[in-house]
Amino acid sequence: MPTGLTRDAGWQIGVSGTLPHPPAAVWDFLTGPAGLARWLGPGATLPTEVGARYATEGDGPSGELRGYRAGERVRLTFDDTTVQFTLRPAREGAATSLTFHQERLPDAAARERQRAHWKAVLAAVAEALG
């Protein structure tokens, strides 16, 4: 089976990095307006109740919240795919490992496009946090 192709979730991609900020600071940013605009899309608001819908401005993604663990993880449908971000403490809580994971991608080309997208998102989050 090619790299990135799974039996159950189709094509998937994961991108991660370590940010020099505690998990609470990264969580607050990612779930606040400026962070949501960077990873989910402009105008996004994040529900906290599983099953609730969200939308972004214009032709941006929309979907449903599938999982929510405050301070740790958000999982949601992202148009026809599923996206999740996960935070884990690193370096004794002084830093945070941030992972974006997307599954149910249609093909290998979409996987590579999304790899570039999530790398750019991770870089934008790191830059915004300083």
Automatic annotation (TrEMBL):
InterPro entries to which the protein is assigned, alphabetical: ASHA1/2-like_C, START-like_dom_sf
Pfam families associated with the record: AHSA1
Entry coiled-coil feature ranges: none
Domain Activator of Hsp90 ATPase homologue 1/2-like C-terminal: 21-129
SUPFAM superfamilies registered for this protein in UniProt: Bet v1-like
CDD domains in alphabetical order: SRPBCC_CalC_Aha1-like
Family, as annotated: Belongs to the AHA1 family.
Protein name: SRPBCC domain-containing protein
Taxonomic source organism: Streptomyces triticirhizae
